Fold each of these.
Amino acid sequence: MIRPLKLKNLLLPSNIWYAPLAGCSDFPFRRLSARHGKPGLMFTEMCKMDALVKKESSTFRFLDYDPSMHPIGAQLCGSDPKYAGQAAKMVEDLGFDVVDLNCGCPVDKVTKDGSGSALLKTLDRLYAILLTLTQSVSIPVTVKIRVGWDEKHLIHTQMVELAEAAGVSAITIHGRTREQAYRGLSNRDLIEEACKKAKSIHVIGNGDIFDSGSAKDLLDRGCSGVLVARGTMGKPWIHQQIVHELETSTPFLVSTELVRSTLLEHYDEIVSYETPRKALLSLRRVACWYLRDLSGAKPIRDLVNRSQSLEEVRQHLVNFDFNHLYIGQEQNLAMQEQ
Ligand SMILES: Cc1cc2nc3c(=O)[nH]c(=O)nc-3n(C[C@H](O)[C@H](O)[C@H](O)COP(=O)(O)O)c2cc1C
């Protein structure tokens, strides 16, 4: 079930991948992911093709990576085939292993110029972009879609054929429509339909994968792999957890001490990457991810949120008694049984 995946000449060690997450899958996040049971493939945040081609300096920051993060994909966002090839070549020259096209972002700011999920309404244009990408680089090209713009316009099976025809190596399918945004559940039946359509392309299932059970369900339905998104936030070890649980059928136990020590590692990464002001804002957000599943964590969340300096945050994380917190009923019982 957990297995290596081949995309063209690239052999990925695992079929459990980490998603592009704007504002989250940044350099510090990816450093942590690489260190805690690295996924088969990880992605940068989305990066605008035109901004990259025009060499806007802020854009290059999205593409910061270090050797520990390989295999790593860069995700491009845009709707103009004119920029696609050049942007992909730049990504390849920067040393990325994979280039991915974003066809899922639902936000108006992105869709208004025809990018992100708006491409699901203009399949001719989308095909032209994919073809340009595959013809411009020798690294594998992947595409990430939603199942359609809305329920009346589902294009998941058509997209599998179209991506295959364009020479794309893998298609990631989030089982929600653009209209749904994040409401309701990701529709796994639709992802399964797409898997049945695929001849040569890998179908990677995405949506609501928060544990090994949900990953297993998508793999059982025929997906070559899965892409974990929100499930990675505050849980850089989730790849390790899914692999362990699927391979041994025993729970991967997360202690409150693991949560604290990993959050402190994340702290160090953020502090060495960002300016102090940005680091403080980033840390408040990141601390919430780590603390959200801990019962009794409100006091430490409040302390972090009220902290006025990075050192103050650090002191609270070091001094707070994490032994009084616990990680949900089930895990707690499993730990007592050990
Ligand atoms: C905060 C946030 C940022 C995201 N940024 C991106 C992005 O840059 N590119 C992309 O293709 N998808 C992005 N997504 C979508 C996720 O990659 C994923 O497809 C979606 O969250 C569904 O998976 P999940 O239910 O496991 O979270 C983002 C999602 C969230 C919540």
Amino acid sequence: MIQLHQVSKVYPERGEALRQVSLQIDRGEMAFLTGPSGAGKSTLLKIIALIERHTRGQVVVDGKNLERIGRRALPYYRRHIGFIFQDHRLLTERTVFDNVALPLVVAGVGRGEIERRVRAALDKVGLLAMERRHPRALSSGEQQRVGIARAVVHRPALLLADEPTGNLDPELSLEIMRLFEQFNRVGVTVLIASHDLMLIRSMPHRIIRLRDGRVEDSGRREAS
Ligand SMILES: Nc1ncnc2c1ncn2[C@@H]1O[C@H](COP(=O)(O)OP(=O)(O)OP(=O)(O)O)[C@@H](O)[C@H]1O
Ligand SMILES: [Mg+2]
């Protein structure tokens, strides 16, 4: 699903944030990305989601070479990916329903289809009863679940999450991870950046460790 070959990323102000990263994530796999602050976890996720462009090397996602995806094709590419932010980035003036509906509205999906898909997404994260509320009136765990519903409303084949449990207590964190497992079980490929070693080690998934922009441990026996 994701192939990185000798990928480097240079931020002009900073220098090399990723150094010759080679990795493969299979279709249907669930994996964690860990490593110290500044190791390049968020950068790697952003490159896969084309929020940032890599500087050298090759990135292939779902058979698409990302260098060949120009600005005009970006929205279409992103529709195949669900991205979950640590701070969930919800619109506070809009209802839960409207927040989850947003990607479909932007994509020009019809009203009836939007209602059907938003409710299906909210149902999956257990928030169907809260569609009329505003994000401010929700707990942080619930807000994070709205972010997940918004990310899956397109039914993406790939889910990327950047520290999705960063602000949550251990119990809620586990609940969120279980939710990702549910999506993974129905075939979605999931890649989650997380500092929470205790939590991710308690789960039976691959752990990729980055340090200083390099892959320190690919979590798997493979040529890298
Ligand atoms: N937009 C940017 N411009 C310049 N430098 C950046 C930018 N984004 C990240 N960096 C730098 O690249 C390096 C990797 O950052 P990144 O955010 O990918 O790390 P991370 O592993 O996600 O860290 P954390 O665990 O703190 O979230 C850091 O040194 C950071 O300062
Ligand atoms: Mg980060």
